[in-house]
Inverse folding.
C-alpha cells in the first residue's frame, strides 16, 4: 500500500493550523463527554451502582470478605468467558444461541471418553476443544452458506446439541450425569496445569501465616488461591478487547457487523471473519465446560442451560448492539460482573433470591433502551 | 485532444440469458479527462460500470486498459490496476469512525513492541483528516462516526479514499443523485480537483446540468446502446439534453400532445 502524500492544492499552513487548533479545543472539552459516548459506559455505571447498592445493603454480611469476593467473581468469570465470545460475534452481526448447549456437549466430550474409553484427560480436553470448534465452524459455515439468520441456524444447534448431550449421557452412564472425572483430572498434567484449582497458592498461604486473611482451624487459608477461571477470564478479556480495538482484525469485526456488503466491497474477507468468530464463541463455550468439569468433577446433561441468553444479556448490558457493528469486550465483562454480583449478592441480603431474574430482566430492558439512545446519537447528526 | 486512452471498451456487448443489457457499446476514456456517462434508467449504465469495475466480463467485444486487453476475474484485479469504483452505497459503515472507515480493508499497521502488528489508528486519523481537508471538508474529530456526517461529506470521503489508495481511474456512480444543490456542487468541485491531479474520471449521472459544466466528453446510453461519444467542443448542453430525453421520441410525443383535444 502506497501512502502517497500529495501537496495540498491551494492551501498553505494557514487552514491546517486552524484545523489543528480546533481539534485541540474539542479534545480539551470532551473527555467526560467522550466517556458518555463509549459503548461500555452504561455497564460501567451499572456496575458501580450495583456495588454501591450491595455495599449499603450487604456490606457487613461477608459479601466483600475475601471468600465472598472469590465467590461472586467466580460466577462472573464463568459468564464473562462466554460473554466475550458472544459479544465479539454480536459485534460482527451474528448470534450464537447454541452456546449453552455447547457447554453441555463439550462437557460430555471430555467426560465420556475419559470415563468409558479410558482416554487420558488431556486427550479428552483437546478432543473437546477440537470438536466444539469444528461445530462452531459448521454453525458459521451454515449461516454464511444459507444466508439464513444465525438466530434460526444456531437455534437448531441449541436443540441438536442439548439432545445429543442428554442422549449420550443416558446411553453411556444410564443417567443424566457422568461423574468421576474430577479424580482423573487431578492426576492429569494438562487439567491441573491450566484448568483445575487455583493459582498464587503460595501467596495465599503466606498471607494466611502473616494473618492478613482468614484461616481455617488447621492454619490453612480459607481461600486457597485465585481460581484459574478468573485468570482465564482476565486473559481472554484483555486479548479480546485488544484484538477488537487495536488490530486490523478488530476493524474488520466492526465493519462486517456494521455493513457486511460495504465491508465486502472494500476487500474485507467477510466469511472468514464471521466463521472464525463462530469458532471463537465455541472455543469460549468449551473453555467454560472444561473449567467446570475440572472444578465440579462431572459433566451433566443440564450444564450451561440458558447460558446463551445470559451471555447475550451480558453483552447487551455491556453496550453491544443486537444489530451488530457496535460494542465492547470490556463492556461485556462489566455486564458479566453485574450479573455475578447480583446473583450472589442477593443471597447475602434479606431479599428473596427469586427476585434475581426480575432484576436481571429490568437491567436488560434499561440497557437496551440506553443502547438504542446511544446508537441514535451516534448515527444521527450531532 | 490527444488520443491517449487509459480505458477503452470496444464494441462491448453483455447478455444476461436472453436479456441484452449492452449492445455494441464503444467508450474511450482519455487520460486525465472527465468523461460523463449519461443515460436514463434502464439504459445499461449499471451494467457498463460493473463491466468497467471488473464485476462482469463482456460477452462480446474488448476491454482495454492502457491499450492492452484485460480480462478481470474480480473487482480486486481492476482495483489493483488503479480502477476504483465508488458505488452509490459508498461502502461506508455508519457506526464506524471516519478514520476506521477510511482505512477499512487496508488498515495501516505498526508494530507493537517491535513485532506485534496492530492498527495504527493515530496515523489513520491524521491521514483521513488531512485528505478530507484537502477536499475541503473539515472533520472536527476523525474518531467521530460516519453517521454524523452529511450525505455530501460521505460522498466526498468515499472519493477521497479512492484517490488516496492510488486510483488512476475513478468511476463515480451517480455521486450527486441524492444530494442537494450545495452538496452536489462540492462533489463537482471534488471531481475537478481529481482531474487537476491527473486522475481520469468516469462520471455517471442522468443530470445534464451536473454533467455538462464538469465534463470533457460525453457518452450517451439508451436502451443498452451507445448513442455516440462527443467532446465538449462538438456538442452543446441542449443537444445533450435532447439526446438524453430521447430526441426524436420526444418530438413525437410533443406533437402528439399538441394535437390532442382535451
Amino acid at each position: 500500500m502506497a501512502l502517497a502524500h500529495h501537496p495540498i492544492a491551494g492551501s498553505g499552513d494557514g487552514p491546517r493550523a486552524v484545523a489543528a487548533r480546533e481539534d485541540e479545543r474539542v479534545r480539551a472539552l470532551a473527555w467526560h463527554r467522550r466517556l458518555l459516548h463509549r459503548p461500555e459506559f452504561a455497564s460501567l455505571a451499572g456496575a458501580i451502582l450495583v456495588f454501591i447498592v450491595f455495599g449499603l445493603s450487604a456490606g457487613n454480611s461477608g459479601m466483600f470478605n475475601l471468600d465472598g469476593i472469590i465467590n461472586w467473581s467466580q460466577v462472573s468469570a464463568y459468564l464473562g468467558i462466554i460473554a466475550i465470545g458472544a459479544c465479539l460475534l454480536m459485534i460482527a452481526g451474528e448470534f450464537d444461541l447454541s452456546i449453552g448447549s455447547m457447554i453441555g456437549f463439550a462437557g460430555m466430550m471430555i467426560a465420556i471418553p475419559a470415563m468409558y474409553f479410558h482416554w487420558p484427560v488431556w486427550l479428552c480436553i483437546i478432543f473437546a476443544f477440537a470438536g466444539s470448534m469444528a461445530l462452531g465452524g459448521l454453525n458459521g459455515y451454515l449461516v454464511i452458506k444459507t444466508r439464513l439468520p444465525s438466530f434460526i441456524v444456531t437455534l437448531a444447534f441449541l436443540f441438536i446439541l442439548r439432545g445429543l448431550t442428554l442422549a449420550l449421557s443416558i446411553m453411556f452412564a444410564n443417567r443424566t450425569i457422568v461423574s468421576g472425572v474430577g479424580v482423573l483430572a487431578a492426576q492429569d498434567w494438562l487439567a491441573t496445569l491450566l484448568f483445575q484449582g487455583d493459582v498464587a497458592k503460595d501467596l495465599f498461604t503466606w498471607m494466611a501465616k502473616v494473618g492478613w486473611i482468614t484461616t481455617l482451624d488447621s492454619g490453612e487459608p480459607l481461600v486457597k488461591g485465585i481460581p484459574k477461571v478468573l485468570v482465564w477470564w482476565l486473559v481472554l478479556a484483555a486479548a479480546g478487547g485488544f484484538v477488537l480495538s487495536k488490530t486490523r482484525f478488530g476493524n474488520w469485526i466492526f465493519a462486517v457487523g456494521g455493513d457486511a456488503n460495504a465491508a465486502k466491497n472494500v476487500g474485507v474477507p467477510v466469511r472468514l471473519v464471521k466463521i472464525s468468530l463462530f469458532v471463537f464463541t465455541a472455543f469460549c463455550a468449551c473453555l467454560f465446560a472444561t473449567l467446570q468439569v475440572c472444578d465440579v468433577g462431572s459433566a451433566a446433561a443440564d450444564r450451561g442451560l440458558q447460558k446463551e441468553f445470559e451471555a447475550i444479556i451480558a453483552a447487551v448490558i455491556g453496550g453491544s448492539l443486537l444489530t451488530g457493528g457496535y460494542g465492547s469486550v470490556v463492556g461485556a465483562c462489566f455486564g458479566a460482573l453485574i450479573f455475578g454480583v447480583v446473583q450472589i449478592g442477593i443471597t447475602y441480603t434479606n431479599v428473596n433470591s427469586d427476585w434475581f431474574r426480575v432484576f436481571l430482566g429490568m437491567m436488560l430492558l434499561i440497557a437496551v433502551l440506553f443502547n438504542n439512545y446511544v446508537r441514535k446519537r451516534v448515527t444521527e447528526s450531532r | 485532444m490527444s488520443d491517449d486512452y487509459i480505458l477503452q471498451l470496444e464494441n462491448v456487448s453483455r447478455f444476461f440469458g436472453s436479456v441484452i443489457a449492452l449492445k455494441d457499446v464503444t467508450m474511450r476514456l482519455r487520460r486525465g479527462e472527465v468523461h460523463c456517462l449519461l443515460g436514463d434508467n434502464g439504459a445499461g449504465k449499471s451494467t457498463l460500470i460493473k463491466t468497467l469495475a471488473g464485476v462482469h466480463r463482456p460477452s462480446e467485444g474488448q476491454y482495454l486498459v492502457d491499450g492492452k486487453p484485460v480480462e478481470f476475474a474480480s473487482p480486486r484485479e481492476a482495483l489493483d490496476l488503479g480502477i476504483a469504483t465508488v458505488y452509490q452505497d459508498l461502502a461506508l459503515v455508519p457506526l464506524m469512525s471516519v478514520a476506521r472507515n477510511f482505512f477499512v480493508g487496508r488498515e495501516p499497521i505498526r508494530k507493537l513492541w517491535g513485532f506485534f502488528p496492530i492498527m495504527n489508528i493515530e496515523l489513520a486519523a491524521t491521514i483521513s483528516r488531512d485528505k478530507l481537508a484537502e477536499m475541503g471538508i473539515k472533520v472536527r474529530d476523525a474518531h467521530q462516526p460516519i453517521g454524523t456526517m452529511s450525505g455530501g461529506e460521505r460522498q466526498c470521503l468515499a472519493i477521497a479514499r479512492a484517490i488516496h489508495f492510488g486510483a488512476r481511474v475513478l468511476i463515480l456512480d451517480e455521486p450527486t443523485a441524492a444530494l442537494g444543490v450545495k452538496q452536489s456542487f462540492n462533489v463537482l468541485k471534488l471531481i475537478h480537483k481529481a482531474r487537476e491531479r491527473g486522475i481520469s474520471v468516469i462520471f455517471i449521472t442522468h443530470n445534464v446540468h451536473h454533467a455538462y459544466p464538469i465534463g470533457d466528453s460525453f457518452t450517451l446510453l439508451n436502451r443498452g446502446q451507445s448513442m455516440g461519444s462527443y467532446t465538449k467542443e462538438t456538442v452543446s448542453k441542449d443537444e445533450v439534453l435532447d439526446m438524453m430525453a430521447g430526441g426524436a421520441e420526444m418530438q413525437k410525443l410533443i406533437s402528439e400532445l399538441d394535437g390532442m383535444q382535451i
